[in-house]
Amino acid sequence: MAIYLIYAIIMVFAHPQVIYPFGDDAFENPAFRPLTITDRDVVLAVHEGTDDVAVLYFMGNGGALAYFGSSLNAHVAAGRHVVAMAYPGGGGIPGKPSELGLKRDALAAYDWLAADFSGDIVVHGYSMGTGLAQHVAAERDVAAIILDAPFVKMCELMTRAAWLPACYMPGVQRWDSAALVPRIAAPVLVQHGTADDLIPMRDGLRLAALMQDAGLDATFHAVEGAGHNDLARQPRYQGQINAFLGRVLE
After folding, report:
1. With contact defined as beta carbons under 8 Å apart, do 200 and 186 qualify?
2. Where is the Peptidase S9 prolyl oligopeptidase catalytic domain positioned along the sequence (predicted)?
């Protein structure tokens, strides 16, 4: 018991390094321009599209936008405006990530976009970024929500991986998406790979069921054979997004 208690205490302090293993690769895409919200030091990558829809994009815990080009290009190819938030500590951006800080920055990114854009705003999250997309949707007015490989509670994933009651331990960043569901009103598309071994598809199914039980227009799409990191490269990925947005934004 003493060894287990010491292990638990160590993990309380060490778990941010596990859930934020951000890469350093810089984002270099000529379709995007860098922009910093100076009063908050929030770094964005901005693509000016031709459509009347803007997508506010939140990446996974790779932490560098360079790794999420397939998701971003799906929106660029459709002509949408895209605003992607960089994360402090990743992609060469200085700073230290935390659940509280990332959620604060996500709202700042939305507020910046909403101040200048009069069309529909869609939030799109991938993996860890699904928690940010849902947080924004719970706090602000969005037209639609796209969730790729979402979790129900990140602390549950920690429990499975570390054999610790992470959801009940003080000092643990919980990332509880289930708690946000009652405050969400927009229609939702959940896409999850059947071969995802990082966040199992049962998490996406469970989250979609929670949303449906709450009365939300929540669509679940199982992407056959897709893992966690290649979901956005599957042939039907962009088509599912286009069909969903075409239906809910009519």
Report:
1. no
2. 105-240
CATH of the domain at 241: 3.40.50.1820
Q: What is the pLDDT of residues 73-117, one digit of tens each?
A: 999 999 999 999 999 999 999 999 999 999 999 999 999 999 989
CB atoms within 10 A of CB 85: 24
Asked whether the beta carbons of 79 and 50 are under 8 A apart, the reply is: yes
**Both structure tokens of 81:** 């405006």
pLDDT at 13: 65
Residue 159, exposed/middle/buried by CB under 10 A (0-12, 13-18, 19+)? middle
Q: Which domain holds residue 223?
A: 2-248
Domain count, the chain: 1
Q: Give the up-direction half-sphere exposure of residue 26: CA atoms within 13 A in the CB hemisphere.
A: 6
List the structure tokens of 248. 């809910």
Q: Report residue 81 CA to chain centroid gap.
A: 18
Give the dihedral sign, CA 21/22/24/28.
positive
The answer to whether 34 and 60 have CB atoms below 8 angstroms apart is no
Reference 68, options 18, 125, 147; nearest CA is: 125
